[in-house]
Hints:
Elements: H1 3-57, H2 63-71, E1 87-91, E2 96-98, H3 111-114, E3 118-122, E4 125-132, H4 141-191, H5 206-255, H6 262-289, E5 298-300, H7 302-319, E6 323-326, E7 335-337, H8 339-356, E8 362-370, E9 373-380, H9 406-409, H10 414-424, E10 428-434, E11 438-446
Parallel strand pairs: 6-8
Antiparallel strand pairs: 1-2, 1-4, 3-4, 5-7, 8-9, 9-11, 10-11
Amino acid sequence: xxxxxxxxxxxxxxxxxxxxxxxxxxxxxxxxxxxxxxxxxxxxxxxxxxxxxxxxxxxxxxxxxxxxxxxxxxxxxxxxxxxxxxxxxxxxxxxxxxxxxxxxxxxxxxxxxxxxxxxxxxxxxxxxxxxxxxxxxxxxxxxxxxxxxxxxxxxxxxxxxxxxxxxxxxxxxxxxxxxxxxxxxxxxxxxxxxxxxxxxxxxxxxxxxxxxxxxxxxxxxxxxxxxxxxxxxxxxxxxxxxxxxxxxxxxxxxxxxxxxxxxxxxxxxxxxxxxxxxxxxxxxxxxxxxxxxxxxxxxxxxxxxxxxxxxxxxxxxxxxxxxxxxxxxxxxxxxxxxxxxxxxxxxxxxxxxxxxxxxxxxxxxxxxxxxxxxxxxxxxxxxxxxxxxxxxxxxxxxxxxxxxxxxxxxxxxxxxxxxxxxxxxxxxxxxxxxxxxxxxxxxxxxxxxxxxxxxxxxx
Length: 459
């Protein structure tokens, strides 16, 4: 059974039960109140007639014989049988002077019964008590017909309310099931590979939030798919260039058109090493994504890591006439980190900085404490990064300058690897750059009380 039909039936059943309960209670209440109203009117008339009788006769003498006339039952209402009747009259002392309701003449009515009786007062004096029995007061045919008409009207109203609840149930069921049906169809399309699916957000309730979440998921899946396709194409391109050079040189040597000189062999070796580095970087990224990078964290001073990285690249910097310095930091603090992995990050950053910084430029390394974090900075005076490229520099194989060769541009995976390693330490990495003036890469790691569990995630 479809959800819309289930909701419609649920609304119908709830409406039917509610209307039936309301109609039943309303009918009973209306009938009871109507009868009580008639009886109260009748009882008030009795009290008035009894007061008149007492005033005319100066007592209750002969009242028992006059009771049928005083009760004044209309011709269409059945007169009560005596002595059960609906009325008992006593004098001021509670002695029965007109029997009914099971009492006998001369009998003394108990005080608790008199407490429920109506007082008969003449000139401010209580001259008697009237006890009445509501349950023995029968409806006249006209009153019974009126009650029947009232019950019929309630029944018709109940039927109308049920039909209205059915219509409202159908409308609400469709309103509730339509977004779910759209989500179901869109989900099936996504499962079949169509990731461009969107559903209309019709409200701000839970269904609307579900639709918005689905749209966000679909958008992100489409973006991931596009990135995967682009990455596959980029990897194929990056592998093809050095592989073509290796195969081209090998074929030329085999055909005798190129002598196997040391220079030729060096070209082949360099391209093979570039292939090896690219494959190593890809493996590192895949391990990072799978959480399989091994870490051996310990308390270490980031400032010492910066000094070690600077010493490792000092010769290359001097050869390019680049000034490489490390700012002293007296109280940068310690962080839980794997020195080898974090050294790998710093080497990637320094390699990029040296590649992009022109001669007579400057690369500055610094470490400082910032709140509950240790902040490491690698700044250069290179050409900087354009604002539109800055958000993408940590993406895999992303290059701001598409014309840059791999010889000068690296593998395009170094910053992606750096981001994965820093994230595995519970830290963040970001880029700050002014186009034409230089770039600063900022690494923030939590201070001393956070560690990693040896699998690449914080302990």
